[in-house]
Specification:
The chain has 539 residues and is of the alpha+beta class. 53% of the residues lie in helices and 17% in strands. The protein is globular.
Length: 539
């Protein structure tokens, strides 16, 4: 099984390979009481990637390394600048399945092949405090790189690496850096050894005149704007189209919408490893990204051709549903448990907590295994490739070339007007199931309007940002109301089961009454909430 280590480190430029390491005396760094020489380790690492370097493009590294005290397979996932999660697996002759799965959203069906071999002589020193506790590990690495695919170049260099000890204070790295800078060292221009190796060993030749690159071909193919062509593109898993973001800032309405679409596509791909690792909130965040994409396609139909995007929206809806398996039931159980915990003990009669737990477990239809199977499945991987193809060659309509102030603002106002109509309908209905349904419909439309305003914010500024806040507030109120509807339905079901089992159903009635009061309070707050939103208006 793979395990994970959070790695916080900084790299610095050293002298040419073979020279003396310019490492100053670090004993006078604040907090350091001793520098322990740990000797030199000989490291042999082979880095794997696709032939077109999809992992390197995403700043991911996958290697098989021998030597040192952590020999094995290492997959490094970027978290933020200078911070990476290193996923480790035992040594084997082939790439471990666990690690391959974590890069599946990047590589799709492409093969992982050796791209670079690094031979490093690592001179290690430990910085410790007065109690002997490790503060950081400082290493001077003399590196020899050999290109294994895409060329046959080699390179040599020396670098200094400072890695913070587990649970260490990142501010300590600033203290070490101050000392290193005084000694003439500077931060490395490369984010990793692999990045430097690929750059230093890359073939230095220009493309022949008149040649068209892959991005150009993808762009021409995408401009056909036909639904069947986008669908067919999902089959081309060997080389998914992953264009770079435009160099210039968005100017047209199409530029702004595509920037938002691209961000959500990227979020889905980037969250895939986190979902597989069961990182908290990762499933919810991926689900939100799918919903944002689908809402954007529907809100901005004047910009992106819906004959192309509607079929993709169907697939996004499917993915959101798969991501929601168990989650909705989990949220409902959390509400019931919290309500029960808030109840005075004298109002709890019978095995209520046990019944809630049993009821919840029986209704959890999904599993981690099911979700992983979805992420490994052809339908999901085809969806990712289809999204890549759409971004590479978007099905733009005539309005996409116009100024965003008119086109985007009109789309947002249209969504806002729909919300206004649904809220108005809900307010006119008496309390009951019809009002509950109307409020739920208004909530879904408020969410869509919020996402449309998010996409519009870079173009329209504060008015769109204010609308995002307003719709989020409305969505929260209406969402809390919908939760109360779901809770009351669950309580009716639980009370029936308890009665049939000969248990006292009193507590379920008390909880139902409280949920009903909560719903009434939210319904009472809706007119004032909506009046405040209407006063602000749309964009």
């Amino acid at each position: 099984m793979a395990d994970t280590k959070r790695e916080i480190e900084r790299k610095y430029e050293g002298p040419p390979a073979g020279g003396d390491a310019p490492l100053p005396d670090l004993t006078d760094v604040p907090g350091v009481s001793g520098v322990i020489d740990k000797g030199v380790a000989e490291l042999d690492a082979t880095y794997y990637d696709t032939a077109d370097q999809r992992l390197a493009t995403a700043s991911l590294t996958l290697r098989r390394r021998t030597g040192g005290d952590d020999a094995g397979w290492h997959l490094k996932l970027p978290v933020s600048e200078g911070v990476r999660d290193e996923i480790r697996a035992p040594l084997s002759d082939t790439v471990p399945e666990d690690l391959t799965a974590l890069v599946r959203s990047r590589i799709r069906e492409a093969e992982l092949v050796p791209v670079v071999r690094l031979l490093s002589a690592r001179d290690v020193r430990h910085l410790v405090d007065a109690s002997g506790t490790l503060l950081a590990e400082v290493s001077v690495d003399r590196v020899h790189a050999e290109r294994l695919s895409g060329g046959a170049g080699s390179a040599e260099w020396t670098e200094i690496e400072v890695e913070l000890a587990d649970d260490g204070d990142p501010a300590f790295l600033d203290k070490v850096e101050k000392k290193l800078r005084k000694a003439g060292l500077t931060r490395s221009a490369s984010a990793s050894k692999l990045a430097k190796a690929l750059d230093d060993t890359a073939p230095r030749k220009s493309a022949a005149p008149g040649k068209t690159g892959k991005a150009g071909k993808a762009g021409k193919a995408g401009k056909a704007g036909k639904a069947d062509k986008v669908a067919d593109a999902s089959k081309a898993t060997a080389t998914p189209a992953r264009p770079e973001p435009p160099d210039s800032a968005p100017r047209t309405a199409g530029d702004h919408v595509l920037a938002y679409v691209r961000a959500q596509r990227d979020a889905i791909v980037e969250l895939d490893p986190a979902v597989r690792r069961d990182v908290p909130d990762s499933v919810h965040r991926m689900r939100v990204a799918t919903r944002r994409l689908r809402s954007t396609f529907r809100s901005y139909g004047k910009i992106l051709d819906r004959t192309v995007t509607d079929p993709i929206g169907v697939e996004l809806k499917w993915l959101a549903a798969e991501l929601g398996v168990d989650r909705d039931q989990e949220v409902l159980t959390e509400h019931l448990t919290a309500a029960l915990d808030d109840l005075p003990s004298e109002l709890v009669t019978g095995p209520v907590q046990a019944r809630v737990s049993t009821w919840s477990g029986a209704r959890r239809s999904g599993s981690r295994q099911r979700l992983i199977a979805v992420l490994d499945g052809k339908r999901y991987l085809d969806l990712l490739t289809t999204l890549d193809t759409l971004v590479a060659g978007p099905p733009l309509r005539e309005a996409a070339s116009k100024k965003p102030e008119k086109v985007i603002a009109k789309a947002v106002r249209k969504d806002f007007e729909k919300v206004a109509g649904l809220v108005g309908e809900a307010l006119e209905l008496p309390p009951g199931s019809e009002r509950d349904l109307a409020m739920h419909d208004a909530r879904k439309k408020a969410k869509r309007t919020r996402y449309a305003a998010e996409a519009a914010t870079p173009a329209l500024g504060d008015p769109a940002a204010d609308l995002v806040k307003s719709m989020k507030s409305l969505q929260t109120l209406l969402g809390d109301h919908q939760d109360s509807v779901m809770v009351r339905g669950a309580l009716r079901e639980l009370a029936t089961e308890a009665h049939e089992a000969g248990e006292n159903a009193f507590t379920y009635g008390v909880l139902y009454g409280r949920a009903e009061q909560r719903a009434a309070a939210l319904e009472g707050a809706l007119p004032g909430e909506w009046e405040a939103i209407e006063d602000k208006g749309a964009v």
